[in-house]
Design brief:
Helix content: 25-40%
Oligomer: single chain
Largest sheet: 6 strands, mixed
Length: 246
């Protein structure tokens, strides 16, 4: 489903990803964790073309992403119609209603009829517990509600996989669980998911694998149970000791 091979990226002269390789199979739930500045978000953002890269290769559901050093560009529209992305700060269109946020891309990009797009949108809003808010504006919603709408908006494109870039880090503590509950339901339904998150409970209980990054490198790639019970690298052991001691 997702294949990252020997991926390296620079910002100017600063290398931020070092020879990263990762395979994610259909239906897998993979959590990417690590300290701040370790390259987690940069890695996940390369998967739908939000961040260019200079070396290596990325293939998502048969679509190959080109490096910035290669001629030509990947068909980003085709890629982004297959890959759902949920961001830290929701990224909803503030001037559009919740319903219009969900139907815009399916109508404009996928060519769906307005009636069909709206019917699907109501189904998805009900799925994330937000159907009563179809006519609300994003500014009228709490952070947790906005993030659930953002998840529904990503699902409206019928993606083959979902990318989550720290989806709960901008939320108040009491709102985090409502977003994680939606993500857990998606996992149960078999959605392929790659999640950058500090929510170790989600990683432990829901993820099939954990990727641990440090200084732009993938230091550890292990089944979730193994990562939490016996992390192999000293750096991962230090990270878990700090993050789990609370």
């Amino acid at each position: 489903m997702i294949s990252i091979r020997n991926l390296s990226k620079w910002y100017g002269t600063k290398q931020v990803l070092h020879d990263c390789s990762l395979e994610v199979g259909k239906g897998e739930i993979v959590v990417v964790c690590g300290p701040s500045g370790s390259g987690k978000s940069t890695l996940i953002r390369t998967l739908n073309g939000l961040e260019p890269f200079q070396q290596g290769g990325i293939v998502v559901d048969g679509i190959t992403l080109a490096t910035t050093t290669e001629k030509g560009e990947a068909n980003l529209q085709a890629l982004r119609s297959k890959v759902g992305m949920v961001f830290q700060h929701f990224e909803l269109f503030p001037h559009l209603s919740v319903l219009d946020n969900l139907t815009l891309a399916p109508i404009k990009v996928l060519g769906k009829r307005k009636e069909d797009a709206e019917s699907k949108a109501h189904t998805l809003l009900a799925r994330v517990g937000m159907d009563g808010f179809a006519n609300a504006m994003p500014g009228q919603l709490s952070g947790g509600q906005q993030q659930r709408v953002a998840i529904a908006r990503a699902l409206a494109m019928d993606p083959v996989c979902m990318l989550f870039d720290e989806p709960t880090s901008a939320l108040d503590p009491e709102m985090i669980s409502e977003v994680l509950d939606v993500m857990s339901e998606l996992a149960k339904e078999g959605m392929t998911m790659l999640c950058v998150t500090h929510e170790m409970g989600f990683a432990k209980n829901v993820a099939s694998r954990v990727i641990f990054m440090d200084a732009g490198r993938i230091v550890e790639d292990a089944p979730s149970a193994d990562f939490f019970s016996q992390p192999k690298s000293e750096r991962a052991q230090q990270f878990l000791a700090k993050i789990l001691r609370h």
